[in-house]
Amino acid sequence: MEIIDDFIVKLIDELPMLKETYEDELNYWYPKKPPLTLLMSDFGREIVNLELSDDVLKKLMVMIENGLNSKDDLLSNAIATGLLETLYFNFVGESKSKFLKFLEKNSKHHINILENFYKN
User: Fold this and answer.
1) How far apart are the C-alpha atoms of 45 and 54, rounded to whole Å?
2) How many CB atoms lie under 10 A from the CB of residue 60?
């Protein structure tokens, strides 16, 4: 869980406005921890509503890539199916173009697979 907790702390450090979402999830699921994929999806829905600078969006994409490449399979899967896919399906217009532009290698690969799946 340390890798997961570290990722969440770094994400909230970069985007402090996610802290309230995190605390809401912790309170809702207490005494258990919230399901990680659900938490990542909720983070994604919050991120879509933010007006992020290009620099912050680039940093976020690097963080997502690092989490996607994590040796912790739970974190990697939650980022792919919770955070990354939520961002992909909820960003629109110019925001979606920027999101796609700043994707890192494995994140881009995951999104390409997702797009191909939905084309068929």
Assistant:
1) 18
2) 20
3-state helix, strand, coil in the chain (%, to 5): 80, 0, 20
Which pLDDT value is given to residue 85? 95
| Angle in degrees, CA 103, 5, 80, rounded to 5 | 30
| Identity of the amino acid at 55 | D
pLDDT tens profile 94-112: 989 999 999 999 999 999 9
Q: b vs e for 25-42, b when ≥16 Cβ sit within 10 Å of the residue's Cβ?
A: beeeeeeeebebbebbbb
Residue 19 token pair: 């802290």
Listed by start position, the domains of the chain span 2-119
CA distances to 29, 38, 41, 50 from 34, rounded to whole Å, are 5, 7, 11, 23
